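Progress narrative, work stream C.
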Amino acid sequence: MDDIKPVELQEPLEELARDPKRFSHDLKFPPPEKIRIYDDTLRDGEQMPGVAITPKNKYELARELSDIGVHVMDVGFPYVSEGEQETLRLVLGGRKRGELRPDLEVVCMMRSTKGDIDATVRVIDQLGYRRDEVTYFIFTSASDLHVKYKLGKTLLHRDGIPESEWLELPVKYYREANIRMMCEAIAYAREQGATSIEFGGEDGSRADVDYIAEIHRQGLKAGGTRPSTPDTVGCYSPFAVREYIPAIKAAAPEAPLVVHFHNDLGLGAWNTVMALGSGAEVFTTSVNGIGERTGNAPMHQVLLQLRYLFGIEIPNFKYEKLRTLARHLEQMSGVPVQPTEPGIGLNVFSHESGIHTAGMLIHPAIYQFIPPADLGAEISYVYGKHSGTLAIEHALRHAGIRPEPELVNRVLAEVKRIREERAERSDFSDFHRRYYDHLNRMGLTADEVVDIAKALTA
């Protein structure tokens, strides 16, 4: 028996429904081939409380990221642990063997100190790779709050000034000392064989824009190749992005600009899109948006907004694999994706409402504007108290059962009865408890830390 097929539209769809990309704006995006996706899942993503991904799983994730089409991959601080070193070994080895794309850029993080640079270089040497096979991300801070109160004592020690002067010295001193420290680190990395050097200051969204511009100008003069400005605490608004990113870009127009946004106000993806339309060429992101606090700009959200609102498709990116990638990271990280998460959630292409289901069965465009096949998905229907007769007819036809009206009505009544009975019996308190117990057990508690200390000193 034939299944219900969508009607054939007699007019072009764009004449029947306004294309979401049809609106006026003054954003100036780079050509799609110039936009670079910079994945932070292996480093910043893993900083999500309780998340710990093994080097083996990180490598499997790296292979998927390479295959799906990211351009840059941050593998973290390779000198801090054997696990991080193993991750770097696996990633560089995979790239050499052709399991990862040869053009995949690998980034190692380090502070603006010779000690961090030396430690990174030693790891690369020990692994048997050239020092110029990775990008060195040398970072400092940008906001006056960070520069004076987080880095202040470090800067004083470098200049031989006693700590007693810490609170009395003006911000101007700390700004100048901070730039000197960063530039010396960049120059030193160059001397050690680095050819690709990213640099920038934390807490850029709360920093003086003129100071960020100076950090970028001086960093390039010292030998850096790519400035980066992060919204470390996630407080940027799209309006602030539109005001400040052009000014930051203007300070170093010849170099690609990296932007990094967190999601504390739910704006990580949209701020990223606004930044790309305001002068940035490289954007950091993480799979499923995992990361510290509320996470990083979610990869899927940024890419879907660019594609379906601005018509920007990243060449060779495999959008149809986003949902599979999301499922795999769920398994590796232990962090579930919300069913309503745009593009990748379980419910994105699912319908129960009788009105919506009826419309979808006439034509999918009635209640969906993203074709499910674009994301490797299919439309599905859930049957319950909100279902209508067309949904039941569809299910019966699909099973080869003739949908006689009387049968359809009886089945529909029974479906609603069963669903409401289940709702009466439902108690989600146990599921709720187990869900939060799972999340809380991902990391160690303070009591466990104290118990470890007691055991070690017994």
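Work stream C, second folded protein:
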Amino acid sequence: MEDPLPPRFQPGMIVVSTKGHDRGRLYLLLALKGDKRLLLADGRARGYVDAKLKNTKHVRFLGQAIDDQELDRILEGQQCESECNTMIRKMIAKWVQSKDTDKE
């Protein structure tokens, strides 16, 4: 029997794809699907409605962008898909910017 999903994965985290044609792309973790699958979106190529389903082995955790309950509240408060995608892009950009300022 395989181990369940590691506790380190939870919605609101930023992950980077390590395998596949999207290698190197940053995603916001929207939800957990089963033991080994993550629902990911970047707000551009993979939006809120057509989020990517990816195996946990094919991503690497980078950091926590937002609390999972806060993520749900923000995304549920949006009126349409384009607003959700905009919020996802902003969350990723804000996280990247915070990491860039940490390096300085």
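The chain has a mean pLDDT of 90. No further action is required on this item.
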